[in-house]
Write a structure and sequence with these properties.
The chain has 277 residues and is an alpha/beta fold. It is built from 8 helices and 7 strands. A 7-stranded mixed beta sheet has the order 3-2-1-4-5-7-6, with helices on both faces. The longest helix is centred in the N-terminal third of the chain and has 28 residues. The protein is globular. 35% of the residues are buried.
Amino acid sequence: MTNIEMPRLDRDGLEDRSFGRLGRAWSHIRQHGLLEPRRLVHRHGLGASLGFVRRNIRHIVADRLARKWDRRHGVDTAGSIQLGTLNVVGPHRAMGNEAVCTSPRTFDFIMKSLPRDLDGRTFIDIGSGKSRTLLLASRYSFAEIIGVEFARELVDIARSNIERFREPSQKCRALSVVEADAAAYNFPKAPLVVYFYNPFSKDVFDLVLKNLVSSLERRPRDCFIVYGSSSHRAIDWARPAIRETGIFQELPVPAMPGFLDAVRTIDYAVFRVHAAA
C-alpha cells in the first residue's frame, strides 16, 4: 500500500510531502466515500493496512517534532522535499533521493560511534539538503563542516539557516555549503568524517566513493564514513561497496533505536580507513 500523496508546496515553493497528510487522507475519503477505508483493508489486507497507518502516524509525529526544532532555532530544515522541480547541478537528478534530514536524536546516537576528540577533522555531509545535519554537527568540535548539495534552492535555504542558527552548545561555526554534483566533488585534504544519509542511487555513490578513495591514496589521512539508510535498502549495497575498496574497516555499532523524531528508523554502518592506508 502506498501513501495517499498529492503535491503540496511549502512557503519556499518546494514540493514537500510531509505537509497535510491528515488533510489529504480526509479528502481522499470524502472523494471516494466513507466506506473507502473498509475497501482499502479488503484490498490490501489488515496487516498491510495497519502498517500503512503506523507509518503515516510516525511520519506526522516526526515531522511535527522537526518543525518544533526549527521554530526553536529559527531555521527551516524539515520536510520531505522532492527533487523534480528543483534546479540541480550535473546530470544525476534522476538518481537523487528526496531530501529528508537526519533527526537530532538519531544523529547524536550515531556520533557516539566516533571519537570524542574531533578537533582537526572536517565533517562532510554528502547531499546536505536544507542543512539540519550540518547544524547538528556544529554542536561537536569539528574544525570545519561542509555540506555538498546539487539542488540550488536547497543550497540557498541551507546557507540562510547557517546564518541564523545559534545555539549555546554550538562548538563549530566554520560551516559552509558547496553547490555541486557530489560525483565531481573534490574532498579536502584534512582528516575527514564523511556522512551519507541515502542521498542517491548506487551508481552515483560508487563514483563518490571512488573519488574519496583516490583522495585518500594520494594524501593518506584518517577518515570515517558514516552511511545511513532508511529506505530503498541502500545499506545493503553501500556496506559491501565500502568494504570492497580494501582500505576501510567496518566498526561495531549498536542497533539504532526507534526514535520518535525520526520519520523512519535508520540502518547505519560506520567505517574507518585502515591505519596503513
